[in-house]
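Protein modeling request. Please complete all fields; requests missing the sequence field cannot be processed.
Requester role: graduate student
Desired output: 3D structure, token encoding
Chains: 1
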Amino acid sequence: MTATLKAGEEVPRTRQPRRRRRGDGKLAVGAVIVGLFVLAAIFAPLITSGHPADQDLLNRLAPPSQAHILGTDQLGRDEWTRLVHAIRIDLRVAALGSLIPAILGSLIGIVAGLGNHWLDAAIMRTSDIVVSLPLFVFFIALVGLLGPGTGFLFLDPGELPLIIGFTVISWVVYARLLRSEVRRVRSMDYVRAARLGGLPRWRVITWHIVPNAIGQSIVYFFVDVGLAVVAISTLSFLGVGIPIGTPEWGSMIQAGRNVIQTNWWLIAAPGAAIALIGMGLALIGDGLDDRIKS
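Delivered output (294 residues):
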């Protein structure tokens, strides 16, 4: 039996189900993973026992137990405590080492994309020189030249040279990416219409070009943070950057490699942390990319 409408009555509205956007699942999973790491870093003193440098010499290389969730290392230091406190160093350096070159490279890319031929060519040739360098060798040489230094603001010794090194090298990717996006967007019909409509140049750039060109740089930023975590851990494994003895995932792996056959968890725990945070950041970047394209 169907209902009939009287004259003047409106068709009743039905609630439409919310359409799930592409990338929502990846974005949610990645955000949960990264969020858990961030919360662990914030509340590290509450979820760990003691200081990461505290030693229990009577329980060196102890296996996982109720007292030491992930066991102890060669100096009797609690592995779980060091693992959690290392999040603060790795994520802080990785985030700043990606954010600063992202801002700098994006500004340079915008200038190159909107500038004249000579300015664009000069910026691109400079980026070619940086790309042609053996990056890891150059990075190690640069960090070694700057030395560990001292603490700066909220940074611990050894962190500022790493951030400077990331900035010198990583700005190129953001500059090239945003340059190509700006050149693509500036040729769109709606940008031409805005110009023909008499809008000031600065307004066309800030309202129409940059907001529609910045998306891929934001996506790459999250991937870049994950790559920076791997780079920091690799350098620490080689003894470059973060001072020895500081709780850091790469140095923890380096310290545990001599006892891998008997105490494999000393390498497995920081290795799993690196893989997990990298996966979370990659999922966020992939999810954002799907949403931008949808």
